[in-house]
Design goal:
Number of helices: 14
Structural class: alpha/beta
Number of strands: 8
Helix content: 40-55%
Strand order of the largest sheet: 1-2-4-3-5-6-7-8
Length: 292
Amino acid sequence: MTKRIPGFQYDAIAGADGVMLNVAHAGAGSPIVLLHGFPQTHLMWRHVAADLAADHTVIVPDLRGYGASGKPAATSEDIYSKRTMAADAVAVTKALGHDRFALAGHDRGALVAFRAGLDHPDTISHLACLDVLPTLDMWDVMHGTTAAIGFHLFLMAQPPGLPEKMISAAADEFFGYFLDTWTRDPSAIPASIRQVYLDASREAVTSIVADYRASATIDVQHDTVDLRQGNQLPMPVAVLQQDWGAALGFDAEALWRAWAPDLEHTTVGFGHFMAEEAPSDISKALRALIAR
């Protein structure tokens, strides 16, 4: 990977269990961490990060298993749990000198952010989640023929072996499918950036599948415990998402409010890759969140 966010410094920083993460950071002021989604790298935040760095310290890692970050073997189910990945974000930010910070995540990164908010409520000051549902709710709404839209969730939930082999056999087609069909403005992901995503994903099939498999196993266990104990996100929370409820038959705001009493929920008209399709809108929303 040669592309970088202009003006950002890059460092390899140890995560929660020593896995080295590729981290871009710049700016000064109150810190905000931005976590990317699938099938992307930290570069999906390039526009938003540059904007926010005018008055914030902005920290943008590649998640473990993605991009230029370490890709440890999934020798236990904890390796790619959202709990471990959330601890990565906390460790990296602390290494850069910040014990409390705002956190925004998109897609997979939003699930990590959600877990960070539950596990580290005194560390996460504000939380933004872009275009996801919490893991338990996601699985609950996926039923009937409409669930076909999430076929990749079921594929990568299978035991190790077949999913990795199938995806590796047509990696560019598989990852490219989501880049092409989940965006409403193809120009938002130019060919050079698209190629970075494809190259990075092709080299990370095993770890990406492990990340998704965790969301059908250990992540469900962790979220179920929090649900039973009545744990919620105590910080101000902003959720921006497409109107998946209209297609799948659920009330997204109600599902989120059960976890986040201090919630600002917005249904947007952008495609899934909203930080690239509508970066000024996302920057505005994140600034509004931090001001709460």
